[in-house]
Amino acid sequence: MEYLLAAMILVPLSVGVFLGLVPERFGRAPRAIALATTASVLMMAAALWVSFDGSSARMQFELVHTWVPGLGTSLHLGVDGTSMPLVFLTALLTLLAAIASKSVSDQVRRYFTLLLMLEAGLIGVFVALDLILFYVFWEVVLIPMFFLISVWGGERRRYAAVKFFVYTLVGSLAMLAGIIALYLTTGSRTFDFMELGPLAAALPASTQIAIFAALAVALAIKVPIVPFHTWLPDAHVEAPTAVSVLLAGVLLKMGSYGFLRFGPQLLPNGFAAFVPLIALLGVVSIVYGAAVALMQSDLKKLVAYSSVSHMGYVMLGIASGTTAGVLGANVQMFSHGLIAGMLFLLVGAFYERAHTREIDAFGGVAKAAPVLAGTLVFAAFASAGLPGLSGFLGEFMVVLGSFAAYRTYAVIAAAAVVITVGYLLWMLRRVVFGPLNEERAGFPDMTGAEAASIMPLAAGTLVIGVAPSVLVSVAGASSAALAALIGG
Amino acid sequence: MTTMPVLSIIVLTPALAGVLIALAGRGPHVPRAIAAAAGTICLCACAWVYATYDRAAAGLQFIESVEWIPSLGISYALGVDGISVPMLLLMGIVMFTGVLASWDITERPREFFALLMLLVTGVFGVFAATDAFLLFFFYEMAVVPMYLLIAVWGSTRKDYSAMKLTLFLFAGSAALLIALVLIYWQAGAGTFDLVTWAQTAFPPEFQRWAFLLTFVGFGALVPIFPLHTWSPDGHVAAPTAVSMMHAGVLLKLGAYGIIRLGVAVFPDGLSNWASLIAVIGAINVVYGAFCAMNQADLKYVIGYSSVSHMGYVLLGIAMMNRFGFEGAVFQMFAHGIMTALFFTLIGYVYESTHTRQIADISGLMRRTPLVAAAFIIASAASMGLPSTSGFVAELLVYLGILTRSPLLAAIVFTGVVVTAAYLLRMLGSILLGEASPAVADLEDPRPVRLAPMLILAATIMVVGIAPATMYETIRSATGPLLILVTGG
Amino acid sequence: MTAPADIVRLLAPELIVALTGALVIVIDLLRPQVQNAPRTRPGVAYVGIAGLGVAGGFVVSLAGERGDLFEGLVLLDPFSTFFKLLFIAIAMIVLLVAVDPLPRFTRWPAEFHALIIWCTLGHMLLAAAGELFTIFLALQLTSLPLIALIGYAKRDARSGEASLKYLLLVLVSTAVLLYGMTLIYGSLGTSTISEIGERLAGQSTIQPVLALGLVLLLTGFAFKITAVPFHYWVPDVYQGAPTPVTAFLSVASKFAGFALALRIIVTGLRVPLDWSLIFGVMAVLSMTLGNLAAIRQTEMKRMLAYSGIAQAGYLLVGLAALSERGVASLLFYVVAYGLSNLAAFTSVIVIEQATGSTRIEDYAGVSSRAPLIALCLTISLLSLAGLPLMAGFMAKFDVFLAAAETGLAWVIAIGVVNSVISLYYYLRVVWQLYVSPSCRDEARIPVQVRPGVALAVCTVGVIVIGVLPEPVMRLTEHAASALFGG
């Protein structure tokens, strides 16, 4: 079983490299190859999910192999209840992104090469249990993302790609510095997460704070927590649809996952010092993201800012230090992956038809394309936290959990739902309802490929919303353990 | 009591029907047939619950409980007492009649009925839930389809109204969410079980503020005075069946919530705020009545009359005595049936006349005596004339007010007078005189459209003439509640 | 006293390299001349490569042996073996790459090959030298061919200018070096490095004359390793020299400087001076100034020149650590940097062959004209920038860790920041390759077999070492421990 983890990284990576290197005549159907690859990765993720023991908070399917003993680093993989859902989410969203990449016509092979490499990197980040390995994957994600945005993106893609790159790079170098500092101060001569954990936890608080500060910069940029968020709207707006899906669906989770992984388990005292700040910024993100989303005239920007807002809940949940809050953060991560994926796919579908994303350029779409419009309504409500869908559960648990520690924040977070509903409804009103905009008269309804990429996500939100135990049974024990660490 | 999960049948049948309808074909026949079937099942089940409910025994009956999210102490727990049983019956009737009243919907019947069923699920769920989270879950579930039903199938500024309604209700539910979280932590029992909460002795200071939060949260739906402005707009814009549900049942969700979560859990909170609630209730009654007086649109008249009538419910609660409580619950039932009848009738008239202006309609008595008779019965109930259900309800509330404050009774009485005035004015205008050109095509309803009118009118009369069963049912729950509030 | 037969046996690699150079010229003379026709002459290059290969084989076969010749003038230990192999490998790659572009700037390819080979002989001797004046001789043996090589493009004025500059540099640095050596010899009475070390170890204070001698000695090397503030010659010479020579210069010459510096500093300079601080400052200055200057460059070779200055800074970090671990990390960095830089230069050469330009803006659209070249160049640049999965990442990381153990946190901090800066200009090239719209020519860039092979070897090496650095690290640790007497 543990070799599945390695396979989930190696398969997309090697297929990606193969696709990138073979001459044109041997790689005629890059999309089909990519689909087959991502589908098999998804199956592996599903197999892991099924055989995952949710009652244990320990690492499972651990795989240790020597790598560079000289650097004290080894190939150490494993998943716990926090990373397992994210691994699955990555596999799912990459497959759907590959399906949604049907319209990519320029340099197709290269595109799918990068997509597969991205998948390998993302899964690697979530399963790596060695800090160097983690860092390697963290950086590996950066490069394909940069190219995917800068080559296949929109009009201002270069600006957006560079901005994305610079932000994340500054972050990841801070992270590297933090990792080296960790190595130095513990004197452990190993980067193994499990071995380093107890040693790092024993460091004096001031050291922990300094090291965690370095790590936190990288993570906060990725999440992104306001005020580190400004790269996100640009990157989202310019990225091609499938890439936006992965960006919002999975990349942002790298940050929040990092907080969970490095904070309580590695540097508990350092993390503790930042918890109030994280909570505060989480709430600020919630409100600010929602408020700014309210003002957007571009559909994609609206969804992008809504991501900022929704990731704020994750941060607040993490900072709460309660089982409910941390579990809520986990649920919200997974749920936001599904919902943001859905929304971006829909925005992409709208853009492909109208070649504009201006909200005011639509109107009455429900009349021309009822299924598409209906799905947008569904996605919007999922995002707004409609009960029975996953988003509701995540946000509820976060508010519930954060209440014990941060009453005011929890109240604000709960009240912010009104703003969320506000911008989503207002968007729906201008896009879906009302009189049909004449330019949109021949608006085609949802195609099969679009349905194939969007509907699984809709089904996922529904399943998690109605039967959260599917997710909770996997993430529960780990969340409780983490919460015990954070909450002291 | 029983091994058959009758409450689950009531709650889940519409949900299942909704799914089936969503999968059905495009034509109107299959969806409405499924909806009607579901309506029949639910109505029968509700009637069965009403009939077999053990009035001698206090407390919850027909209990079902399945763990849902154990780590948070959330369970799928259903159960009914003397307050929820009448509400279930009310909903059963309104649902069944609402489906029949929507028989002639031609615009996207599939989506309409599917959403309607979702709405119904939510409402049933609120009335049957004994877990606060579940209650909240269903509560929000009822709000969202409402938005779509109005936004897509409504009339007269539907976008604006739908938006306004949803934002008000979401603001309310944000307050509720906060309240819920607050209580959860304060109770410290790690559960959302309402019975456990009701048995917990919360500190008075906490009760005071938590009650207020609950009151405002649910009050938005009642609607209590300053928060009422969405309500008439919503009524007017909504399609017939939705208006029926909305005025007939949804408003009761608010009042029900105040009793279930506010009064039962925070008896001290109620005593603290009773006078405020009384004042608001009085304002609702009088202000609503005066507003109704000035309306030219039939639906607005009934919309404001609802504001007015819901004031009685508030007054009844605020009196904190036997009659007050009984009257409040009775009024919820009575008003629900009566308003549903009103909206059925107005909807029927509107469908053929395409106007709701009082000035445009006259001489209904000649064109269609059946409809006219139903109008008269509804108005009689609304005015609280004897032998209608409204009489019993208002009488009880008045008794309650009189024993507490004759001055308040005098003030409220002006509301009764004004109500009589505007209803009689309306009746005189639309029923009497020569048939206006608008009503030229109006005919007696077909059986399928007549049935709801008959059922609703019959209910008004039956409950009005033989209120004992209903009264006993209600008393079995308000009795213990009163003991809780007055401390024995 | 070593027997003559043993001397021949132990010096076999050097002798073979020397003979190979001669053989190349002789073979070329024997071949029929075609007047005024551009001559590629791959044959002589192959002879050279084969000869170097044989020499490499002998180096490997002698790897287990340790000892010294001529009473400590030439040393044979894993450290020298490591560098000898490295220099041979570099020379082989450069020969392979240089074959095709040679006709562009000369009619005398065979001599070119011979000069590279002889220069390599000098490098090998430098790595093995155990005595100051042997070092001096070996340095001359490398410098003279380089002067000729840099000016090899006779028709290009810039090449001549570069050659002249290099000549002046060699003169100055040699003078400085020689003066330093004399002062040291004068104060200590010995010129053998190990003896210098022994004598210095006993001294608690250091005479001013000796101090001056040491400073001058190190200054001479600093020129070679292109560390700030002795880097001024680098950009002009790199830009002016024929690109294959630049490639050679940027790795072999720099590494020879490091080999020497390591040998002298570790075994010789046991004096109470804070070498760590001195090299730390030099490292920081090189990194920062090199990177900042590289940002502004619009010409690929100049950019790589400045990047080389910055990379020398990272190498100096390993030196500043002044530990066995630090030296090992430096040696590993040398391998990683060598592979990356050679891959980068090979790509530059191939593109220059087709477009005639080394300006960065002319790289636009290369990704569609030569996808594999673009990919290799990208990988090599990303490796130079220190991104994971490439050798450069492991190397930088290793160096930082070594420095961290010695407590050079400030150097690491600045080093990390510098990585960000460097990524900017490396990526600008990548950007041109992939993102910028192709401006003019859409024709495919042909890739000949020879540079293709060299490029593939280097690029694959970059990735293999980046993913599985362990074998090379063992090697470098072995070499480093030999230097520390282990």
Please provide a written account of the structure:
Chain A has 488 residues and is mainly alpha-helical. Chain A is built from 19 helices and two strands. Chain A has a two-stranded antiparallel ribbon. In chain A, helix 2 packs parallel to helix 4, helix 11 packs antiparallel against helix 12 (299-320) and helix 12 packs across helix 16. Helices cover 75% and strands 3% of the residues of chain B. Chain B has helices at residues 6-23, 29-52, 84-101, 109-128, 132-153, 158-187, 194-199, 204-219, 230-237, 240-263, 267-293, 298-319, 322-353, 364-367, 369-383, 389-404, 406-431, 447-465, 468-486; strands at residues 61-69, 74-80. A two-stranded antiparallel ribbon of chain B has the order 1-2. Chain B is globular, with a radius of gyration of 21 Å. Chain C has helices at 4-10, 12-30, 42-61, 78-98, 102-105, 109-128, 132-150, 157-188, 193-202, 208-224, 234-240, 243-268, 275-295, 300-320, 324-355, 366-369, 371-385, 391-405, 409-434, 449-467, 470-483, and strands at residues 67-69, 74-76. Chain C has a two-stranded antiparallel sheet with strand order 1-2. In chain C, strand 1 and strand 2 (74-76) form a beta hairpin. The mean pLDDT of chain C is 88. The chains are: A mainly alpha (488), B mainly alpha (488), C mainly alpha (486). Chains in contact: A-B, A-C. Chains A and B meet through helix 13, helix 15, helix 16, helix 17 and helix 19 of A and helix 5 and helix 6 of B.
List keywords for this structure.
heterotrimer, A: 488 residues, mainly alpha, C: 486 residues, two-stranded antiparallel sheet, 21 helices
Concise description?
The complex is a heterotrimer of chains A (488), B (488) and C (486). With 488 residues, chain A is mainly alpha-helical. Chain A is 76% helix and 3% strand.
Mean pLDDT of chain B: 86
Fraction of helical residues of chain B? over 70%
Q: Tell the overall outline of chain B.
A: globular
Chain-averaged pLDDT of chain C: 88
Strand order of the largest sheet of chain C: 1-2
Strand content bin of chain C: under 5%
Q: Can you count the helices of chain C?
A: 21
SSE blueprint:
The complex is a heterotrimer of chains A (488), B (488) and C (486).
Chain A: H1 2-21, H2 30-51, E1 60-68, E2 73-79, H3 83-100, H4 108-127, H5 131-152, H6 157-186, H7 193-201, H8 205-222, H9 231-238, H10 241-266, H11 268-294, H12 299-320, H13 323-354, H14 365-368, H15 370-384, H16 390-405, H17 407-431, H18 448-466, H19 469-487
Antiparallel strand pairs in A: 1-2
Helix pairs in contact in A: 1-2, 1-4, 2-3, 2-4, 3-4, 3-10, 3-13, 3-18, 4-5, 4-10, 5-6, 5-10, 6-8, 6-9, 8-10, 8-11, 9-12, 10-11, 10-12, 10-13, 10-19, 11-12, 11-17, 12-13, 12-16, 12-17, 13-15, 13-16, 13-18, 13-19, 15-17, 16-17, 16-18
Chain B: H1 6-23, H2 29-52, E1 61-69, E2 74-80, H3 84-101, H4 109-128, H5 132-153, H6 158-187, H7 194-199, H8 204-219, H9 230-237, H10 240-263, H11 267-293, H12 298-319, H13 322-353, H14 364-367, H15 369-383, H16 389-404, H17 406-431, H18 447-465, H19 468-486
Antiparallel strand pairs in B: 1-2
Helix pairs in contact in B: 1-2, 1-4, 2-3, 2-4, 3-4, 3-10, 3-13, 3-18, 4-5, 4-10, 5-6, 5-10, 6-8, 6-9, 8-10, 8-11, 9-10, 9-12, 10-12, 10-13, 11-12, 11-17, 12-13, 12-16, 12-17, 13-15, 13-16, 13-18, 13-19, 15-17, 15-18, 16-17, 16-18
Chain C: H1 4-10, H2 12-30, H3 42-61, E1 67-69, E2 74-76, H4 78-98, H5 102-105, H6 109-128, H7 132-150, H8 157-188, H9 193-202, H10 208-224, H11 234-240, H12 243-268, H13 275-295, H14 300-320, H15 324-355, H16 366-369, H17 371-385, H18 391-405, H19 409-434, H20 449-467, H21 470-483
Antiparallel strand pairs in C: 1-2
Helix pairs in contact in C: 2-3, 2-6, 3-4, 3-6, 4-6, 4-12, 4-15, 4-20, 4-21, 6-7, 6-12, 7-8, 7-12, 8-10, 8-11, 9-12, 10-12, 11-12, 11-14, 12-14, 12-15, 13-14, 13-19, 14-15, 14-18, 14-19, 15-17, 15-18, 15-20, 15-21, 17-19, 17-20, 18-20
